[in-house]
C-alpha cells in the first residue's frame, strides 16, 4: 500500500487531504500539534503529534518514522501568528512564524528526503500561498515566511535532483477555511446578504487580480496534489498555481 505523510493534517485543508488520500487507498500518517481527540476524522489516518516550533521535534519525528520512507509527502502546516495587521511585530513573534512556516519544515523535509530509500520514489508537495505575490502591511510577515519557504523549496528540488524524489510547490489562493467561513456568515447575517455575495465582494476587494467568484475548494486542492504526485520526476521544481489569478496577467 502506498504511504503518504501529511504535515499539518489536524484541521481544515490538511484534514481534507489526509482523509481523502486514506479514502483513496493510501496509508496516511498525518501530523498536527493538537491532541488526537481534537482532530476531525482522526480515525481515517494515523495521527502523530509534531510541533514545528521546536527544532528538537525533527530528530524525534525522524526516529519514530523509521527508515521505510514515503511515496508522497505533503507539507501543509502553517501558522498565521498573532501578528497579522501589525506591520512591526516583536522580533520573537517574527522568529516564531519563520520557525514554524519556514525553517523547521525545511530541516524536516530535507531530512525526510535524505532518508528516502533509493528504490522508492517520493513526490513531495509543498503548499504555498498566493500571499507571496501581493503582500501588504497586514500580510507581509506571513507572506515573507511563505516566500522564504518557496525559495527553500527550490533548494530542495535542486539538492535532490538526482535522488528518487520530486519536490513541487502548490500555490493556493483563498480557501474556505473555518475562520473565513465563520466571518462570511457573520457579515452575511449583519448585512442581510447571501454568503455567495459576501464571498464575491471579499474576493473583489482583497485582491483586484483575482478572477474567481468562489473560494478555492478543498477538493480541487486535493486533485492538484494527486496531479503533482502523478507527474513523478517531471514535477521536480514545478510551481503549480491554483490561486484564482492572484498575481495578475503575467506571472
Ligand atoms: N487559508 C487560506 O485561505 C490559504 C490561502 C492560501 C494558501 N494557504 C495555505 O494552505 C495551507 C493550509 O492553510 P489553512 O488555512 O488550512 O491552515 P490551518 O487551518 O491554520 O491549519 C494549519 C495546520 O498546521 C498545523 N500547525 C500550526 N502550527 C503548527 C506548529 N507549530 N507545529 C506543527 N503544526 C502546526 C495545524 O495544527 P494544529 O491546529 O494542531 O496546531 C494545522 O494542522 C497552508 O500552507 C497555507 O499557507 C491557505
Strand content: 15-25%
Counting helices, strands and paired strands, the structural category is alpha/beta
Run of helices and strands: EHEEHEHEHEHHHE
CATH superfamily of the largest domain: NAD(P)-binding Rossmann-like Domain
Strand order of the largest sheet: 3-2-1-4-5-6-7
Give the C-level CATH assignment of the largest domain: Alpha Beta
The biggest sheet, with number of strands, parallel, antiparallel or mixed sense and barrel status, is: 7 strands, parallel
Number of helices: 7
Mean pLDDT: 96
* CATH-defined topology of the largest domain: Rossmann fold
For the record, the count of structural domains works out to: 2
Percent helix, as a range, is 40-55%
Shape: globular
In this entry the ligands are: NADP nicotinamide-adenine-dinucleotide phosphate
Rg estimate, integer Å: 18 Å
Characteristics:
binds NADP nicotinamide-adenine-dinucleotide phosphate; 2 domains; globular; 251 residues; 7-stranded parallel beta sheet
Short description:
The protein is 41% helix and 16% strand. The chain has helices spanning 12-23, 57-65, 91-114, 140-159, 178-191, 195-206, 218-230; strands at 3-7, 27-32, 46-49, 72-75, 122-129, 165-172, 239-242.
Amino acid at each position: 500500500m502506498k504511504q503518504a505523510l501529511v504535515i499539518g493534517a489536524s484541521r481544515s485543508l490538511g484534514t481534507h487531504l489526509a482523509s481523502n488520500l486514506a479514502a483513496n487507498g493510501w496509508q496516511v500518517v498525518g501530523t498536527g500539534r493538537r491532541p488526537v481527540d481534537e482532530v476531525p476524522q482522526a480515525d481515517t489516518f494515523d495521527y502523530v503529534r509534531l510541533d514545528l516550533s521546536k527544532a528538537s521535534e525533527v530528530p524525534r519525528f525522524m526516529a519514530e518514522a523509521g527508515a521505510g520512507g514515503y511515496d508522497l509527502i505533503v507539507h501543509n502546516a502553517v501558522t498565521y501568528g498573532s501578528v497579522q495587521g501589525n506591520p512591526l511585530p516583536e522580533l520573537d513573534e517574527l522568529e516564531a512564524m519563520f520557525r514554524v512556516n519556514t525553517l523547521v519544515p525545511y530541516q524536516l523535509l530535507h531530512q525526510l528526503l535524505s532518508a528516502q530509500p533509493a528504490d522508492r520514489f517520493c513526490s513531495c508537495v509543498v503548499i504555498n500561498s498566493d500571499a507571496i505575490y501581493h503582500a501588504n502591511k497586514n500580510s507581509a510577515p506571513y507572506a515573507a515566511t511563505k516566500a522564504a519557504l518557496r525559495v527553500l523549496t527550490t533548494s530542495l528540488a535542486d539538492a535532490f535532483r538526482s535522488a528518487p524524489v520530486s519536490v513541487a510547490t502548490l500555490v493556493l489562493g483563498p480557501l474556505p477555511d473555518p475562520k473565513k467561513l465563520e466571518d462570511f456568515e457573520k457579515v452575511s447575517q449583519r448585512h442581510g446578504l447571501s454568503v455567495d455575495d459576501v464571498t464575491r465582494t471579499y474576493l473583489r476587494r482583497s485582491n483586484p487580480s483575482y478572477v474567481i467568484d468562489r473560494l478555492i475548494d478543498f477538493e480541487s486542492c486535493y486533485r492538484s496534489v494527486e496531479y503533482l504526485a502523478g507527474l513523478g520526476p517531471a514535477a521536480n521544481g514545478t510551481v503549480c498555481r491554483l490561486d484564482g489569478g492572484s498575481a495578475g496577467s503575467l506571472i
